Amino acid sequence: MIVLLLTACAFCYAAFSGKPVYSAFVDGAMDGLKTAARAVPYVAAALLLVGALRACGALSAFGALLSPIAGLLGIPEELLPLLMLRPLSGSAALAELDLLISEFGPDSYIARTACAMMGSSETVLYTIALYLGSIQVRRSRYILPIGLITGLFSAVFAAFFCRFT
After folding, report:
1. C-alpha to C-alpha distance for 122 and 99, rounded to whole angstroms
2. Of 1-5, 64-68, 147-151, 158-162, where does mean pLDDT reach its minimum?
3. What's the half-sphere exposure (Cβ side, CA atoms, 13 Å) at 48?
4. Start-to-end Cα distance in the chain
C-alpha cells in the first residue's frame, strides 16, 4: 500500500512540476551503470584475494595463530575462519557458515554464534573497495580500522550473548 502511495505521489509531482521526469530517470540510470562499471575491478580483486587466502592455507594458519587471543575474548576457535572471511567476502562467509551449520548442527552454540556474527557484521573490505573505489577515494583514513574493530566487537558480543540462549 505504501509503495503504491509513494508511486502515486511521484507521478503527481511529475505531472504538476513540468520537469522531464523520464529523461531524468534515464540519466540517473546511465550514471548508475557507469558507477557499476567502475566498481567491477575492485569487486574482482576482493574475490581473488579471498580465493587465494583459502587456497594457499593462509586462512587456516592465521586462524591457528589467533586462537589464543580468540580464547581470551570468548570466541570459539571454530569461528575464526568465519571471523576472518566476513570482512573480505559475504559469499565466502556464507559458505563458511554453511560448513559450520552442517558440521555442528543448526541448534548448536557454534552455529547460533556464527549466525549472530553474520547478522551483526559487514563485509568491510568489500564495501570499502566497492564504494570508495567507485568514486576514486584514495585515502580512507579511519574507515578500515573502525570497520574491523566493529566486526571484532560483533563477534565478541555474539559469542557472549549466544552462550546464554
Report:
1. 19
2. 1-5
3. 7
4. 37
Q: Are 145 and 151 in contact (CB under 8 A)?
A: no
Tell me the per-residue pLDDT of 15-73, one tens digit each, with 9 for 90 and over.
Answer: 788 777 778 778 888 998 888 888 778 777 777 877 788 788 888 888 888 889 988 98
Q: pTM, whole model, 2 decimals?
A: 0.68
Grid look-up 571471523 returns: 83
Long-range contacts of 39-44 (CB under 8 A, 24+ apart): 39/130, 39/131, 39/133, 39/134, 41/133, 42/129, 42/130, 42/133, 42/134, 43/126, 43/129, 43/130
3-state SS, the chain, equals CHHHHHHHHHHHHHHHHCCCHHHHHHHHHHHHHHHHHHHHHHHHHHHHHHHHHHHHCHHHHHHHHHHHHHHHHCCCHHHHHHHHHCCCCHHHHHHHHHHHHHHHCCCCHHHHHHHHHHHCCCCHHHHHHHHHHHCCCCCCCCHHHHHHHHHHHHHHHHHHHHCCC
